[in-house]
Write a structure and sequence with these properties.
243 residues; alpha/beta; Rossmann fold; two-stranded antiparallel ribbon; 8 helices; 7 strands; LmbE-like_dom_sf; hydrolase activity, acting on carbon-nitrogen (but not peptide) bonds, in linear amides; GlcNAc_PI_deacetylase-related; LmbE family protein
């Protein structure tokens, strides 16, 4: 099916209440520091307002965004990304103890093997520790290997605990070429109205200064969040896919 048809369908998904989309406690899995704010900031802020702050886990260390920098080693960049994540969480009202870091290597999150299985077992522990009923993962067609790997973790968790609700949020998938064909039927899901928290979301994204070209000065080819992605993310609703 053409990407254009799927994206148009996303934008036409029904608006649903927060309680319908995410009953109980949620675990939000972000491949990188910033994905949780790009895809789920409104959901996070809404959950906090409802007295059910989610557990947010950043899976990778975010160290691969500026490989040409000499001043910013991968280790230094990873620490910066963690600090930015904490600042973003504060902007959304998320308690500090609800933000966790798995620390897998950026651009190398596995989809199988020992590290993958150990990661899934840790996530399974978190789900049971916090009595999570919902797990949010990236959309399977987001064009980044780490996003696909985290989606795979969600599928593995579902196999371990079938009663879990696995929902996907698109990020980079919304930027795929409209004429591209992907193997996907029209998805089901909902949109969450986040108009009241849009300023919170904008503030959280702005905390990722290293991703907006405002920190690393010696890597002109380093990653910068593109405006066309931010435009798609800063809408008065967020998209959550159930199939």
């Amino acid at each position: 099916m053409k990407v254009q048809h799927i994206i148009e369908h996303f934008y036409a998904l029904p608006i649903a209440s927060f309680n319908k989309i995410a009953p109980g406690t949620s675990l939000i899995l972000a491949p990188h520091s910033d994905d949780e704010s790009l895809g789920c900031a409104g959901l996070i802020a809404t959950a906090v307002q409802h007295g059910r702050p989610p557990v947010v886990l950043i899976v990778s260390d975010g160290s691969a965004s500026h490989p040409g920098s000499h001043a910013w080693s991968p280790e230094r960049l990873a620490l910066c990304r963690q600090e930015e994540s904490r600042n973003a969480a504060t902007a959304l009202g998320l308690p500090a103890d609800r933000l966790l870091f798995l620390g897998l290597r950026d651009a190398a999150v596995p989809t199988a093997g020992t590290v993958f299985e150990n990661s899934v077992q840790y996530l399974y522990f978190l789900i049971n520790q916090h009595n999570c009923r919902n797990v949010f993962v990236p959309w399977r067609h987001d064009p980044h290997c780490d996003h696909v790997a985290v989606w795979s973790m969600g599928q593995r968790l579902k196999a371990l605990q079938p009663e879990l609700r696995i929902l996907s949020y698109p990020v980079w998938g919304l930027t795929l070429p409209s004429e591209m064909d992907i193997e996907e039927a029209l998805p089901t899901g909902w949109r969450l109205n986040i108009e009241g928290f849009l300023s919170y979301k904008r503030n959280a994204i702005q905390e990722y200064r290293s991703q907006r070209g405002l920190v690393v000065e010696d890597d002109p080819n380093g990653f910068v969040l593109p405006e066309h992605l931010l435009e798609k993310m800063l809408q008065p609703y967020e998209i959550f896919i159930t199939s």
